[in-house]
Design a protein that fits this description.
CATH superfamily: Ubiquitin Conjugating Enzyme
Helix content: 25-40%
CATH class: Alpha Beta
Strand order of the largest sheet: 1-2-3-4
Radius of gyration: 18 Å
Strand content: 5-15%
Number of strands: 4
Shape: globular
Order of helices and strands: HHEEEEHHH
């Protein structure tokens, strides 16, 4: 179902880029003229293989605007299993020289996500001290895989954005797990 929706959204964006999406009288036709938009059209189709394998969905609030979309990550295992975490991804005009901006819209008790939704992930930084930062060869597929990995193997308790969560994990892992579960129940369950 999600793949069908994504294909419909891509088709609508492609139709608009070809000049057919404005409809009759007064509709605004948007053409894909920037490098970013051309890259995004190509990369959205590459994302399909990742989205079919993972428990992640992509939603384009406006199908003619590929530069802003919502990813919902639903981990199947681990501490955050059962939660549904929404991330807003905004792709700047300078893409692919500059990384996308990502904000978590779901409150989550996590060492790499602040209470305000900031995300600590090396590949989202131009200058990363660990050498895994953004490079023009990276794609949206890398961003999706990186965000998914925050809930599995890339969870970093040593270089934490949410120091309180990391400290709680180090001092009292059981209390940390209980707080993760409480946040999932309160903020990350599908209704």
């Amino acid at each position: 179902v999600h793949m069908f929706k994504l294909k419909q959204q891509q088709a609508a964006a492609a139709a608009e880029s070809a000049g057919g999406g404005g409809g009759g009288g007064g509709g605004r036709t948007r053409t894909i003229s920037t490098s970013r938009d051309r890259l995004l059209l190509k990369e959205m189709s590459e994302l399909q293989e990742v989205l079919t394998q993972q428990r992640t969905t992509l939603h384009l609030p406006n199908p003619s605007v590929l530069s802003e979309f919502v990813l919902t990550i639903s981990p199947a295992e681990g501490l955050w299993a059962g939660g549904h975490f929404k991330f807003i991804v905004r792709v700047p005009e300078a893409y692919n020289l500059a990384p996308p901006e990502v904000t978590c819209q779901t409150r989550v008790w996590h060492p790499n996500v602040s209470e305000q939704g900031e995300v600590c992930l090396s590949l989202l930084r131009l200058n990363s001290i660990d050498g895994f930062g953004w490079y023009p060869t990276r794609t949206l597929k890398d961003v999706v895989l990186g965000l998914e990995s925050l809930f599995t193997d890339l969870c970093d308790f040593h270089d934490a954005l949410n120091a309180e969560a990391a400290d709680q994990y180090r001092c009292n892992p059981q209390a940390f797990k209980l707080k993760v579960s409480e946040y999932i129940r309160r903020y990350a369950c599908r209704k």
